[in-house]
Amino acid sequence: MDIETASKCLSELGNPHRLEAFRLLIKAGPEGVTVGEIQKHLNIPKSTLSHHISHLVWAGLARQEREGRVLRCTANFELADALVTYLCAECCNGLDVVQLDETQDA
Amino acid sequence: MDIETASKCLSELGNPHRLEAFRLLIKAGPEGVTVGEIQKHLNIPKSTLSHHISHLVWAGLARQEREGRVLRCTANFELADALVTYLCAECCNGLDVVQLDETQDA
DNA sequence: ATATTAGTTCGATAAATCTAGAATTATCGT
DNA sequence: ACGATAATTCTAGATTTATCGAACTAATAT
Fold first, then answer.
1. 10-residue mean pLDDT series, chain A (106 residues)
2. Is A26 in Cβ contact with B19 (below 8 Å)?
3. Residue B73 in contact with residue A6, Cβ under 8 Å?
4. Distance in angstroms: CA B46, C1' D8
């Protein structure tokens, strides 16, 4: 992971709609979710969502594959891990991140 | 850390100049670095750099305080940690990030 | 064949961002 | 007070991004 790749990924995740969509993909695991399912959560027009998803795909953070009539989206877990690892190493003083036991709100 | 805060931080770090500047601040530790020192590394016009730093400050990722003629910039380590922790929890399947022993290039 | 569903691509507009020179402010030394 | 240094603020142009309706493409069902 170099700084150009990292800033590209961060830039794409630096949009509330895309970050939320990516979060959904991660939470969904390897099975992923369809575009329609993402749309139900984000509640934005199809064309806008499609645009955001194509951003994630362009950055390599997500993949899409057709399954009949639906398009299934999956996160690129390797890249997500590499990005967090990069941030820990380069932008977090090598923070020894501990596994979270509970979700934090603030 | 909520999703709005996270996407705001990610967006600000999603620019090569700002990411590099922030990386310098983190690496510099609590003593921080002056704007001039950052400029030597980034090699961009003062006004452009100032603009980028003000972005980081606005997002809460950095702080500035005057020291005579120079302005000393420091990273907000707590926020950096909170951001990485959020990403691990929400966008990385709760990745159990290990402490890095060596820097990676790819 | 036609209709329906799922989603993309096109096109146009509004808004935000990036860049950088010029002018300005703040501090220090003489 | 004046000049030099450090950095910001102002201003403006160029580029990029976000949004979303309309038209289009792909796959299925009748």
1. 97 98 97 98 98 98 97 97 93 60 43
2. no
3. no
4. 9
